[in-house]
């Protein structure tokens, strides 16, 4: 029987609460499948760890994670530690060091999920974001000059390499070809006259190899308007790190809320472990109260199963999330229910058992 070794970084706030349910669900899937199992190793890296040690992870943290098949992450962030530290020293560090250059974020309105948009049919919101995840404005390049002086200057560079742009754009074209969907390129070439003109040029160059894929190009400001006014026009989307970060939160808002939004950080070549996470933060306002919705984490578990080669289980988990949303009996307060985080996890497990 194959064993998948999974590193669990539960993190802060509601992170440990939702991840406990994700782990529970993955264990049940493996037990039902019978051909593979999971071995989970928990790492305490979090804001609490930082307050104790002065570091978000040990110096050899990346080496400790390297042998794992995947990383399952909850959320990091605490009012006691600057967000730039929690995010850069753990999350972004893992994404960079493991070259997880694809951030795959589904924005799909499931049956029964709430949607704040008027006059939009459920089927009209069904898109997949392919967000560049290794460079752009998040590459960490810049300078802080004349600190605390009147002539203080900060520079945050946008890093766009040919290799970095080509590989994410090619990934998106391949996905669109495989799924027989349209591909929309979202950029901002009218204002960002180096980075985004270059990005658009590479989109066109790579596109010559995919004459079968129908493409569209939009400026990011227009794209955010269309996501609200006419989401149906989007199927596969490719965009930069910063734009993708912002647009996928908008995507979460139109597709059921943060409690249903998942994301996968992929190293497609599998040279390094990929990382699966709900996209929400540590939600300090509801932490420790059993109110956190674990369904985003279950969705990210389904992305992990897809990536490990078990798409049939990935699909089953999405179908179960949809059942829960339609039945409206076992849901957390953000979705109008009264169930606790672990009751929702238990219900997912119960429904998995029913499929036996
Ligand atoms: N990937 C990550 O680890 C990540 C992502 C975003 C923010 N953060 C960090 O999290 C902390 C809080 O950030 P924030 O408040 O901007 O964003 P957040 O996502 O934690 O919370 C925003 C709102 O959504 C609600 N919410 C989020 N997830 C929920 C869930 N699963 N179930 C029910 N309600 C949920 C929260 O209660 C809150 O009202 C900050 O320190 C931030 O830096 C971490």
UniProtKB/TrEMBL annotation:
Needed cofactors, names only, are: Mg(2+); Mn(2+)
Q: What is its EC number?
A: 1.1.1.83
Q: Which reaction does it catalyse?
A: (R)-malate + NAD(+) = pyruvate + CO2 + NADH
Q: Which Pfam families match?
A: Iso_dh (PF00180)
Q: Where is the Isopropylmalate dehydrogenase-like domain?
A: 5-348
Keywords from the named record: Manganese, Metal-binding, NAD, Oxidoreductase
* Keyword set includes Metal-binding: yes
Listed GO molecular functions? tartrate dehydrogenase activity
Family, according to the entry, reads as follows: Belongs to the isocitrate and isopropylmalate dehydrogenases family.
Q: Which NCBIfam families match?
A: PRK03437.1, TTC
Protein name per the record? D-malate dehydrogenase (decarboxylating)
Native species: Megasphaera hominis
């Amino acid at each position: 029987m194959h064993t998948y070794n999974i590193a669990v970084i539960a993190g802060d706030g509601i992170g440990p609460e939702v991840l406990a349910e994700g782990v529970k669900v993955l264990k049940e899937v493996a037990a039902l499948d019978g051909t593979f199992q999971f071995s989970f190793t928990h790492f305490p890296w979090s804001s609490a760890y930082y307050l104790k040690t002065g570091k978000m992870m040990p110096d050899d943290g990346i080496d400790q994670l390297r042998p794992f098949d995947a990383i399952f992450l909850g959320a990091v962030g605490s009012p006691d530690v600057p967000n730039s530290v929690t995010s850069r020293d753990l999350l972004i560090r893992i994404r960079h060091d493991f070259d997880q250059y694809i951030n795959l974020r589904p924005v799909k309105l499931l049956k029964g999920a709430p949607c704040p948009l008027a006059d939009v049919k459920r089927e009209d919101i069904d898109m997949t974001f392919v967000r560049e995840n290794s460079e752009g404005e998040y590459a960490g390049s810049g300078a802080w000059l004349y600190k605390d002086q009147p002539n203080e200057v900060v520079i945050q560079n946008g890093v766009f390499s040919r290799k970095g742009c080509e590989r994410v754009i090619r990934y998106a074209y391949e996905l669109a070809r495989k799924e027989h969907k349209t591909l929309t390129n979202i950029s901002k070439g009218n204002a960002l006259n180096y980075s985004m003109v270059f990005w658009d040029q590479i989109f066109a160059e790579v596109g010559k190899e995919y004459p079968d894929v129908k493409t569209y190009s939009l400026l990011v400001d227009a794209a955010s308007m269309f996501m609200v006014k006419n989401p149906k026009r989007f199927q596969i989307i490719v965009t930069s790190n910063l734009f993708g970060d912002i647009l996928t939160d908008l995507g979460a808002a139109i597709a059921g809320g943060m409690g249903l939004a998942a994301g996968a950080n992929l190293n497609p070549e599998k040279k390094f472990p990929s990382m699966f996470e709900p996209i929400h933060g540590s939600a300090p306002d509801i932490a420790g109260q059993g109110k956190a919705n674990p369904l985003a984490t279950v969705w990210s578990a389904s992305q992990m199963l897809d990536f490990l080669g078990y798409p049939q289980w990935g699909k089953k988990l999405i179908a179960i999330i949809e059942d829960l949303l339609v039945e409206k009996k076992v849901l957390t307060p953000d979705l109008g229910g009264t169930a606790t985080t672990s009751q929702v996890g238990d219900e997912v497990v119960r429904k998995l058992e029913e499929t036996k």
